[in-house]
Design goal:
Length: 361
């Protein structure tokens, strides 16, 4: 399908033309949903979605017609996990260790669905985060601790002052969940920048552990603008939202809403993203697990708490193990032989010394 990182140059995300690149992507996803409409995905209501990381893949741009078009564009993918609601941990990067499914999906699709869900559940998310942070921060008395706690859960929007809230009201991150042109309201840019078109879109940051917004110079959001954050501030009068914080939280998000009477309504963020994602449900307790993307997901490098990127599985080499064992055995034997020779030489020296003294006497 067409990458959602390319959209029409002149329209915001909510006014997508069907013929535009993002419009084609949306229609492609819509067709996929239409084809799967008879499938029953109610089982994912018992799960929570947990963002695990993102990564970049460079690929040829088939829509590069002009000389100035980007020939090699960046494809961004998100890896997420569905964990059972009762075992999904906010503090663990993996979310859970059993009965889960792993998935990979286009980053723009994930961000758009996620931000829509956050807008709907923001009050509940902020209340739950506030409760947890107050428990960790002396009943909320330690403001520095509270600020760090909100930031740690990637929900800084729950802890904004009035100026930050006003900026968020003016700038809707959802409009840039694809890659959209920004029309600067203030003309404080350098004269040679006035003729350029600039775009804002999401990208992988913090070694794949977070998703930030950046300023780019072309419609695929591949080439970063020089001093993009400063340029945005000079033009708009405030910092680019989510340039230093993540669009996506590390917290678990339940895939269903409970109306209080044990009636559950499945959220679109899980339903829509699940249907178009590559799946690996080997460890999931479902009747017909989908394992079509297991090989690909197994090789994805993801972020861990220690900040080191590593593959999700490390295969042991039997040949290497045998060589190491043989080397250690030879080393032990050589050490023993050296000790034997050293002891024997020491005894010979003692006997020689005693014999010399006896001769002199």
């Amino acid at each position: 399908g067409t990458s959602s990182s390319m959209i029409d140059k002149t329209v915001p995300l909510r006014d997508i033309r069907v013929g535009s690149s993002l419009g084609k992507k949306v229609m492609s996803n819509a067709r996929a949903l239409e084809q799967n409409k008879d499938m029953n995905y109610d089982f994912i209501a018992d799960y929570s979605i947990k963002f695990q990381g993102c990564h970049h893949v460079s690929q040829w741009n088939p829509y590069a017609d002009d000389e100035d078009d980007v020939r090699i564009k960046t494809k961004r993918l998100v890896r997420f996990r569905l964990c059972p609601v009762d075992s999904c941990s906010n503090s663990r990067s993996s979310g859970c260790s059993s009965k889960y499914g792993d998935y990979v999906v286009d980053l723009n699709t994930f961000v758009a669905s996620y931000l829509e869900a956050v807008n709907e559940d923001k009050e509940e998310i902020c209340y739950e985060t506030q409760t947890e942070c107050q428990q960790e921060c002396n009943s909320g008395e330690d403001q520095d601790c509270m600020d760090a706690c909100y930031e740690g859960y990637d929900v800084s929007y729950c802890n904004q002052n009035d100026d930050q809230q006003q900026n968020d009201d003016e700038f809707d991150a959802y409009d840039y969940s694809g890659c959209a042109q920004i029309k600067f309201e203030r003309r404080r840019l350098e004269e040679n920048d006035n003729d350029y078109q600039y775009y804002i879109g999401p990208y992988c940051a913090d070694q794949g552990g977070e998703i930030h917004l950046g300023l780019f110079t072309e419609e695929t959001c591949t080439t970063f603008a020089n001093n993009g954050e400063t340029m945005f501030y000079n033009a708009m009068g405030y910092e680019l939202p989510y340039s230093d914080s993540s669009l996506v939280s590390s917290r678990c998000m339940a895939c269903a809403n409970n109306d209080g009477n044990d009636n559950y309504e499945l959220k679109d963020v899980c339903n829509n993203v699940y249907q178009v994602a590559g799946k690996c449900e080997t460890k999931m307790s479902v009747e017909y697990p989908n394992e079509s993307a297991c090989t690909y997901i197994e090789g994805i490098k993801i972020i861990r708490e220690d900040g080191v990127i590593r593959t999700s599985a490390v295969k042991k080499s039997k040949a290497a193990a045998v060589c190491i064992g043989l080397f250690l055995t030879i080393a032990v034997l050589l050490a023993g032989y050296v000790y034997y020779l050293r002891t024997k030489l020491g005894r010979a020296q003692i006997n020689l010394s005693a014999a010399s003294q006896a001769t002199l006497t």
